[in-house]
Every structure is written in C-alpha cells, then in structure tokens.
Design a protein that fits this description.
91 residues, alpha+beta, three-stranded antiparallel beta sheet, two-stranded antiparallel ribbon, 3 helices, 5 strands
C-alpha cells in the first residue's frame, strides 16, 4: 500500500473528500517526522513503534579500492513491529 492508496481507503471508509483525506494523511506523516526529528519515540499500540537509533563513528572500507574510510556518527529512524502485527501477518 502506498500513500495514494491510504488516502483512497480513508476517503472510502469515512466518506470525506479526497483532499481532506490527503490532508489528514499528510498531517499524520508530518507529525511523525517532526517527533522523530526531535528524537521522540512513536508508539502505535498493536501495530509498531518508531524510534531514532544513534550510531557512533567507525572505520569502514571502500569496497572498490579497499581504502579505510572514517564513517561519521549518524542517527537513523528505526521501525519495530508490534506483537499483534506479527501475529496477524504470520497467521
């Protein structure tokens, strides 16, 4: 399912206009992105959680040349599936 299909499903289920459904979905995604940018954890009970993982700097290798490369510290979003979603998918 992509964003457009999510908007369409919301429109069908609630009976609101497509533009209103698109706005609701956009507000939802923007709110999640803003929270994660602040380092906050997002938990949707029964579905999943999102959080930011911090990775330290380390020495890696360029696969082409084999040279050592310093990898800078970084923060990346991380998704963790909830138990109820796991059970629903692995029926």
């Amino acid at each position: 399912m992509n964003k457009l299909e999510l908007i369409s499903a919301l429109k069908t289920e609630t009976g609101i206009s497509k533009s209103d459904a698109a706005r609701v979905v956009q507000i939802f995604f923007d709110s999640m992105a803003d929270a994660m940018a602040k380092g906050e954890r997002i938990e949707i009970r029964g579905l999943c959680s999102f959080f930011v993982k911090t990775y330290k700097s380390y020495t890696g290798r360029n696969p082409k040349t084999g040279d050592k490369v310093i990898i800078k510290p970084k923060k990346l979003p991380f998704f963790k599936c909830g138990k109820e979603l796991k059970d629903r998918v692995d029926y």
